[in-house]
Batch of 2 targets.
Target 1
Amino acid sequence: AQSVAQPEDQVNVAEGNPLTVKCTYSVSGNPYLFWYVQYPNRGLQFLLKYITGDNLVKGSYGFEAEFNKSQTSFHLKKPSALVSDSALYFCAVIPTPGSARQLTFGSGTQLTVLP
Amino acid sequence: GAVVSQHPSWVICKSGTSVKIECRSLDFQATTMFWYRQFPKQSLMLMATSNEGSKATYEQGVEKDKFLINHASLTLSTLTVTSAHPEDSSFYICSARPGSGTSTDTQYFGPGTRLTVL
């Protein structure tokens, strides 16, 4: 069973507009949730993570994500998109913290910010 | 901080040869390193988990004799693709997880290695 899902393969947004990249998870307990960004032919860069505490997590480059336990979601958001934000975004989860502690990645969402 | 390097960044080799890829954590010690494979426009697939000083744990379907992993120190892990074939062509990415501190569950990724087998 898939632990994390990114329902949108592609998201397009105009520069200056708010952006949202969706992520839902399907694990029991209290998962650790992550967002990473990948630029072409590059590795992944860590953006932010939720472990515990405040549901709104702020990360790098002005991104933030809100952990919603009732909706089992962890959507990535930014108030004002930049063209340079165009990249491939991955949501990831550690289903059972403290055990194997391995990341399971979503399928990725290609974000394109149009000038 | 938390920088991970990979070498080489790209490599082209002939079918049947072996290729070694290095993954280094530059400013932290990594008790655990991970190797992933990524096909174009697809997500990362975990190949194996390596812990310093012990044998790697391979994911189901990954041939351990073909993808040799060595994690000889707290800052270096190597992946050797033995007897490479064209179907092994892919983007290989490593990650490293710090051994202590509050960010123990954050993996930091290398820039990746593009392998092309002719």
Target 2
Amino acid sequence: GQQVMQIPQYQHVQEGEDFTTYCNSSTTLSNIQWYKQRPGGHPVFLIQLVKSGEVKKQKRLTFQFGEAKKNSSLHITATQTTDVGTYFCAGPSGYALNFGKGTSLLVTP
Amino acid sequence: DVKVTQSSRYLVKRTGEKVFLECVQDMDHENMFWYRQDPGLGLRLIYFSYDVKMKEKGDIPEGYSVSREKKERFSLILESASTNQTSMYLCASRQTGGGYEQYFGPGTRLTVT
């Protein structure tokens, strides 16, 4: 079945440094979604990408969907302590979503 | 505002007990899901339901069952709780169709002793 792999598993940065997490699917995706889970919280939807090569920005966050629609990335410019949490990508799988294992980001002031 | 609620934030049960975790959504979503989340393992799908009384196994259904008698409510049942079922359990709901986001409840942290 479809596998969604996410790397790295953990990332520790100094505040102000950039951060990138990568998501790779074993199959072509019709769309990909990104979620953020703050420590002690639950996953919250950030964005969805649909088109091949699509790039979307949310303030300091840049999301990309690969040309082949099998990979995606989330890049955070100049991290802040509020960016701490786990970032998940997810691809559709029938009625459900297939989540990557997530990248946990720790930001040191 | 969209809402998914879970019956308990924290629960402590003994080995062998029958455990019910309840989830309610107020968005009239067709699809509801139960996940467990463990460190390093991400979100693993236990069961989901795409309609009332309909259910499908996810990736790790062993030791669990579910019930969906009403559209807004989806219950996860641990028939005989075991210590390896100690985990965070997250319920979610989603509208049918491509591209709809998934809404998660706050989670229930279950400890089986």
